[in-house]
Amino acid sequence: MDTLDTVVVDCRRLLCPLPVIRVQDRVADLAPGTQVEAVCTDPGALQDIPAWCRINGHTVLRTDSKDGEHCVVMRVGGACE
To answer: Which residues of 13-31 are buried (b: 16+ CB within 10 A; e: fewer)?
Structure first.
């Protein structure tokens, strides 16, 4: 993954529902097709952010966990996809 083309949203030390809110606020300013990586310490974000993506038309590309950090990588959706 090319991090130059990926917007990273730092959600470390935030508990539900704040990771989803932080991602939602950041995605609102991004163009469709932009790749976003949310880095979280709350393991619930692995379910919460993908659920938010499904409801709002964004695509989850992958999720993973390592060393107490949980990442959700998504592509911003849009009407012209």
So the answer is: ebeeeebbebbeebbeeee
Q: Which of 16, 40, 53, 80 is catalytic?
A: 16
pLDDT at 16 (0 to 100): 94
Read off the pLDDT of residues 12-38 as tens digits, 9 standing for 90 and up: 999 999 999 999 999 999 999 999 999
- Gap between the Cα atoms of 81 and 18, Å rounded: 28
Domains of the chain: 6-75 (3.30.110.40)
pTM of the model: 0.89
Whether residue 71 lies in the annotated active site: no
